[in-house]
Amino acid sequence: QKKMGFVALSETNYRDMLEIYPKIKGVCIVNGRAPIVPTDRFDETREEMASYKSAADSRIYLHVARCSPVKNQMLLVEAFGKFVEKGYHADLIIIGVNYETELGKSIQAKAVNNVHFIGTRKNVGDYMLNADAFCLSSDFEGMPITLLEASLVGVPIVSTAVCGAVDIIENKVNGVLSEGHTVGEYLDALEYSYQHLCELRQNSQRMKDDSSYTIENCARKY
Questions:
Q1: pLDDT tens track for 13-50
Q2: The pTM is what?
Q3: Hey, is 132 helix, strand or coil?
């Protein structure tokens, strides 16, 4: 009889797996990512992102994910709409596929003018490097690569408290975790990030150099 084991992608994921499958042997090997470096389109990307600003001092929030119910982009755009309505100078750039679907169209219909759907990009790292903050609004996750990318470039993260996010983010230090999955709770997280962005960014920049989420660490553990 063949035996099965599992590899968990984050410490939180590992603890959950042990609880669900107590008789199956497992190991935690957190996801890793190669260093994020500028491409030859970096300056072009910076100019593109600046063109989306609704005000000169607008802060750019970035979301990178396919349109999917589990990614809960509806929560993100509804919270961001209220965020802008409260007078915050901010714009949200959304990169990803499937926004031409019925779900995607309904999300776009809910979005305010400060939300920009720009399709897919091959040089996502350039967008990360030029963003003020990164957003994730998922209902559940394992260990999203986009979170690793944001953490490795030192960009503060605003996220729901899902697996991966709770491992990477030290709440209100290098990012903000929403208390729940309601629009009001995510709005609170966005407001905190805006009001403390300088401090969050300084901490994120400092903490990125000691990250354990490198591809070298991941490969070595495998």
A1: 999 999 999 889 999 999 999 989 999 999 999 999 99
A2: 0.93
A3: coil
One-letter-per-residue 3-state SS of 26-74: EEECCCCECCCCCCCCHHHHHHHHHHCCCCCCCEEEEEECCCCHHHCHH
CA distance 102 to 89: 30
Q: What is the mean pLDDT of residues 83-105?
A: 97
User: Which has the closest alpha carbon to 221: 10, 24, 48?
Assistant: 10
Residues 6 or more apart in contact with residue 103 via CB below 8 angstroms:
67, 68, 69
As given in the structure block, the two tokens for residue 208 are 């990125």
**Three-class SS state of 92:** strand
Check: CB of residue 152 under 8 Å from CB of residue 130: no
* CB-based contact 112:80 (threshold 8 Å): yes
Q: Is 104 helix (H, G, I), strand (E, B) or coil?
A: helix
Q: What SS3 string covers 147-206?
A: HHHHHHHCCCEEECCCCCHHHHCCECCCEEECCCCCHHHHHHHHHHHHHCHHHHHHHHHH
CB 115 within 8 A of CB 137: no
- Written as six digits, the tokens of 183 are 């629009």
d(CA 207, CA 175): 11
* Average pLDDT, rounded, for the chain: 95
